[in-house]
Write a structure and sequence with these properties.
The complex is a heterodimer. By secondary structure, chain A is of the alpha+beta class. Chain A has a single domain (about 55-375), classed as Cytochrome-c3 Hydrogenase, chain B, CATH 1.10.645.10. Helices cover about 45% and strands about 10% of the residues of chain A. Chain A contains 15 helices and eight strands. Chain A has a three-stranded antiparallel sheet with strand order 1-2-3. Chain A has a three-stranded antiparallel sheet with strand order 6-7-8. In chain A, a hairpin with a 4-residue loop joins strand 6 and strand 7 (about 320-325). Chain B is an alpha/beta fold. Chain B has three helices and seven strands, in the order H-E-E-H-E-E-E-E-H-E. Chain B has helices spanning about 5-10, 35-45, 105-115, and strands spanning about 15-20, 25-30, 50-60, 65-70, 80-85, 90-95, 115-120. In chain B, strand 3 (about 50-60) and strand 4 (about 65-70) form a beta hairpin. Chain B is globular. Classes of the chains: A alpha+beta, B alpha/beta.
């Protein structure tokens, strides 16, 4: 057993005790254990214990061919599988020097943004449950189901699509896809207003989240926090803007930021991001032209010796893949840089001094996905 | 700013063993005793304030383990990769977890996966693995349950 570096102070104090939260706890959203040092209801120290579902993906990758790796990357972040696929495919394409056809690029953007909406909707419903609001999940899952149906008609899979290939896309769009997508876009903005009225602007919710778990700029940067959690602290950093990939440079959208870096700001950033995703989808329909969906890719994928790091902006932040190639059919080393890994490590800095009920609110606002941390 | 300009900026301050360009990004190899100095210099002087990741590569043919630090700057949008080669038998290097707090977990992961010991680390325990598995990402790792896929 690992020994946790928590000690209880001796002397004339109130009783301090150690509390285990998880690994089986509804608000950790997966098998995450947090060892807490408590004084009454106040959190004094919090040490996350991860690794319960470590599957050794990075070792497995060393033993697979390049094209065999794509379905494994789906399983790291199952809520936005395509962002992981994309980071990996972009990295291999860059190593091989393949230029992806225009149509495939736009299709990838559409799928990425649909995934972002899926992921944020799930976060919204689960966060409502964490805070004791049981209605939001019913509303959000109604639209999430629509999005998943769209994605299913496009790729054949609901959560883990495995639709991207090195050099393009596996299937072309079904005939009625654009019609369905337009239909979805036409009413989704109103639905976001509805969600905000239900939960985010609710007085009880605001009282529970405002000025709770304030993440300062310097701390966020030092801990490598990325994604909406970083943007909530008023840092305008979005890889889609800074280093556009897969044709994002053509799209007009705003980078949503918060002001104080508290829990409420992180929530608002996510809600606003869904509106921006809709803007991107509207433009993507205009950009979509007929054409090839696969580039010419050699039958045996053997990149030249070298290395590459490619990152995309997933719903949780910087999702990166680092590949070292030795010139053979199998990668020499692959490192997955997952956003939740860094986002969780900041937990201790933002929960100490708050009550245990606030811990649930703060942890939920980081939007963690555990398989991504454990890999 | 391309990599030549960046290189000329840091050349006088850091003793670089080897510098190369890889897909537009400057890679520098440095000595292991310089690591804290270099990372501090890059963070304070050149505003490289984001550590994307830290990991290691097992170079079994050269009997070395290479630790890789990848840095990014929110202000200048520059990227740089710092690499340090360590002996494979006893890999040891100073921690940078007080300079970049995110390095704390990345170093713990590198420690359990490659056996790289980070000196003066505040809490060098295993992060993801159970106790009985040691250094799985080394190329000579053996475990009875771990079989290589058959060649097709």
């Amino acid at each position: 057993m690992n020994k946790f570096p928590i000690e209880i102070e001796k002397g004339l104090t109130t009783d301090e005790y150690i509390l285990n939260m998880g690994p089986q706890h509804p608000s950790t959203h997966g098998v995450l254990r947090v060892v807490l040092k408590m004084d009454g209801e106040v959190v004094k120290d919090a040490i996350p214990d991860v690794g319960y579902i470590h599957t050794g993906l990075e070792k497995m990758f060393e033993n697979r061919k390049y094209e065999q790796i794509i379905p494994y990357t789906d399983r790291t972040d199952y809520l936005s599988a395509v962002n992981n696929n994309l980071a990996y495919c972009l990295a291999v394409e860059k190593l091989l020097g393949i230029e992806v056809p225009e149509r495939a690029k736009i299709m990838r953007v559409i799928l990425c943004e649909l995934n972002r909406i899926m992921s944020h909707l799930l976060w919204y419903s689960a966060y409502g449950l964490d805070m004791g609001a049981l209605t939001p999940i019913i509303y959000a899952f109604r639209e999430r189901e629509e999005v998943i149906d769209l994605v299913e008609s496009m790729t054949g899979g609901r959560l883990t699509h495995n639709a991207l290939r090195i050099g393009g896309f596996k299937y072309d769009l079904p005939k009625d896809f654009i019609y369905k997508l337009k239909n979805f876009i036409s009413h989704f903005n109103d639905r976001i207003d509805e969600y905000e009225a239900l939960l985010i602007n609710n007085v009880i919710f605001v009282n529970r989240t405002k000025d709770i778990g304030v993440l300062k700029k310097e701390i966020a940067i030092s801990y490598g926090v990325t994604g909406p959690s970083l943007r909530g602290s008023d840092i305008s950093y979005d890889l889609r803007k800074i280093e556009p990939y897969s044709g994002y440079e053509k799209f007009e959208f705003d980078v949503c930021t918060g002001k104080n870096g508290d829990t409420l700001d992180r929530c608002k950033v996510r809600m606003n991001e869904m509106r921006q995703s809709i803007r991107i989808l509207e433009q993507a329909i205009d950009h979509l032209k007929d054409g090839d969906i696969m580039a010419k890719v050699p039958k045996v994928i053997k990149p030249a010796p070298g290395e590459i790091y490619c990152a995309v902006e997933g719903p949780r932040g910087e999702t990166g893949v680092y590949i070292v190639s030795d010139g053979s059919e199998k990668p020499y080393r692959i490192k997955l840089r997952s956003p939740s890994f860094s986002n969780l490590s900041v937990l201790k800095e933002i929960v100490v001094g708050y009550k245990i009920a606030d811990l649930v609110a703060i942890m939920g606002s980081l939007d963690l996905v555990i398989p991504e941390i454990d890999r | 700013m391309d990599y030549q300009q960046l290189l000329s900026k840091i050349k006088d301050k850091i003793n670089i063993l080897q510098a190369r360009e890889d897909l537009g990004i400057l890679n520098i190899n440095i000595e292991k005793k310089q690591i804290r100095e270099v990372i501090k210099f890059l963070k304070d002087e050149l505003k490289f304030n984001h550590l994307n990741f830290l990991t290691a590569i097992d170079l079994i043919d050269n009997n070395q383990i290479e630790v890789v630090y990848r840095l990014y700057s929110y202000e200048t949008k520059e990227k740089i990769v710092v690499r340090v080669k360590l002996e494979r038998q006893k890999p040891e290097i100073e921690t940078i977890s007080d300079i970049f707090r995110t390095a704390e977990w990345h170093e713990r992961e590198t420690y359990e996966m490659f056996g790289v010991k980070f000196l003066n680390h505040p809490d060098l325990r295993k992060l993801l693995l159970p106790d009985e598995i040691e250094m799985p990402l080394r190329k000579d790792f053996f475990h009875p349950d771990f079989e290589k896929l058959p060649e097709i």
